[in-house]
Design a protein that fits this description.
Blueprint lengths: L1 E3 L2 H34 L10 H30 L6 H10 L8 E8 L3 E9 L2 E8 L3 E6 L2 E8 L5 E5 L4 H18 L7 E7 L6 E7 L5 E3 L3 H7 L9 H11 L5
Parallel strand pairs: 1-2, 4-8, 5-9, 8-10
Antiparallel strand pairs: 2-3, 3-4, 5-6, 6-7
Length: 255
């Protein structure tokens, strides 16, 4: 199995954002300095008919300077904290590598403007498998698309649950839809899409207490291979030339 991450392109993108942050910050400092100067040293007398416009300009300069500096700081934080790989996806690669040949490519840490962020995608003869790597702690129940956390037990032993504020299943489905749309925009329509939610912590730190008609497969990390054998790996629907084209679209030319 090829196990790759678009680290170079992500580093290049982070450097571009750093450059943008510097340019925006410099422009903000200049605008702020102009606004302060115009306020400290009035260049137009109050009785001058043009003072109203002058006052507006210096106010806008101060406002624009502050906004651009804040934006530059936000861009800088984003650039310097940009993830170029995903430690959880690396674990997935280590687990699957012994079982899959080079007909399969695991692409970690996908980050594209048209797609957003995807933990990992496995491309192979069955199609594209989208991973949602859930690092939460606790005991969970998944019913359809809905997820609940077990908070405790009633006197009869029944679980007391509270809805999660998000659904890993819905997140996975959204990623599948965005990847499919992106591939279609690259003239790669009809690619079979699959999804799986993986609990990355082992019991008892995290566990699935109950699955009730799950919309997508849900598995603990140690059982991932067995889960894929029952789901994703059942049949081959994607020929190799098209699979290679999907890899190039999501990652780049490694073939």
């Amino acid at each position: 199995m090829r196990n790759v991450a678009p680290s170079r392109s992500l580093v290049r993108r982070a450097n571009q954002v750093k450059t943008l942050a510097f340019v925006v910050g410099a422009a903000g400092i200049f605008a702020l300095a102009v606004g302060i100067l115009f306020n400290a040293v009035p260049l137009v007398a109050v009785e001058n008919p043009g003072f109203g416009v002058y006052n507006l300009v210096r106010g806008l300069a101060l406002f624009a300077g502050v906004i651009m500096i804040v934006a530059a700081l936000a861009l800088g934080v984003r650039a310097f904290t940009w993830k170029v790989d995903n430690d959880l996806a690396i674990e997935i690669g280590r687990l699957l590598s012994p079982y899959l040949n080079d007909d399969y490519t695991l692409i970690r840490n996908i980050s594209k403007l048209a797609i957003g962020y995807v933990d990992a995608a496995l491309v192979g003869p069955p199609g594209v498998l989208i991973f949602r790597l859930f690092d939460g702690v606790g005991s969970f129940i998944n019913e359809g698309e809905n997820w609940m956390r077990v908070k405790g037990r009633t006197p009869t032993g029944a679980p007391e649950v509270a809805p999660l504020s998000f659904s890993p299943t819905r997140q996975t489905q959204a990623d599948m839809d965005k990847v499919a749309a992106y591939l279609q925009s690259r003239n790669l329509s009809g690619v079979p899409m699959y999804g799986v939610v993986v609990l990355m912590r082992n019991p008892p730190s995290a566990q699935i207490e109950r699955l009730i008609n799950p919309k997508l497969p849900v598995t603990q990390l140690p059982e991932l291979w067995q889960t894929l054998q029952r789901t994703y790996l059942i049949q081959a629907e994607l020929d190799k030339p098209k699979a290679d084209a999907v890899v190039r679209a999501l990652y780049g030319d490694i073939l």
